[in-house]
Amino acid sequence: MNKSDIINLVCEKNNLGLSDVEYSIKKIINFMSENLYQGERVEIRGFGTFSLHTHQSRLARNPKTGDKIALERRNTVHFKPSKELKSRVNNI
Fold first, then answer.
1. CA angle, 26 as apex, 8 and 9 as ends, to 5°?
2. What is the pLDDT at residue 6?
């Protein structure tokens, strides 16, 4: 399922206009992105928490050639599902 599928599903289930739902979902995603960029975590109760994990710079190896490669410090987005989401997925 992608963003356009979610938009269409919300429109169908709630009899809402496509442009309104599309605008709202884009704003939500933008808000979440901005907060993660600022280093804050985003918690959606009953769904899960998005946060940044920082990976320090390190030396790695190219598995094909064996050459050393310097990897710079980087951030990745980490998602931790809530207990409620875990139980729904596992049919508990």
1. 15
2. 94
